[in-house]
Amino acid sequence: MELVWIAFVASFITGALTAVGAVPVWFGKRPSEAFNDTLLGFAAGVMLAASFFSLIIPGIDIATELYGDGPLPALIAVIGILMGGGAIAVMDRFTPHEHFVSGPEGLPAKKLSGIWLFVFAIAIHNLPEGLAVGVAYGSSANDAAFSLALGIGLQNIPEGLAVAVGLLAVGYSRRKSFAVAALTGLIEPIGGLIGGIFVNVSQVLLPWGLVFAAGAMLFVISHEIIPETHRRGHHQRATAGLMVGLVVMLFLDVWLAA
Question: For residue 254, which of 82, 54, 113 has the smallest C-alpha distance?
């Protein structure tokens, strides 16, 4: 239970950094759309690197320790990644939510206010991040877990700003935009708790949990973040942000896990 508690606290801290990122909406003018898309691209790069270097590769290594060399570790990675992506795809298909640019998705929800549609969209995005941190800390691989949590925490800062600015742009007050962005960070400790409990049930489940979390994050990157950053014509800046985010997370993972 100690590892589960650590997983919950770590994911709570990373989620809380979303509120830190939303602080600038209280001051000055709104960031430009180009700047916003660059920040989202950075977040995508961090998540992409974290998926491979902090989740998939460690998951394959643990599966190899459990089952030896051969096709089984790779098969676990393939199935787990597809299961993680499929789980988020089902949530995306059947949970009513709304994106800042593309509009409503999922099942119709006429009785829900617009702000809750945004919250559901962000929940779909943040749950895999918390799950990843929870699985990493629940596995007791502290070095890799710390680099993963640090990377996700860093990308939560621009993500919090992007969410708050997006809400501000569609007419919500500064106070409500900040509050909703901050509250969405609380989705992550829920995912962290689930991930921590899951991998502590049995060590056999550990590689599955790591690659499942990676697949969930990869789906969010491809389906949610990258399309959002390219719809306004700022794809070059968004791609530059993604590259920077990827190498920052790569550096942190190699340095801190050494």
Answer: 54
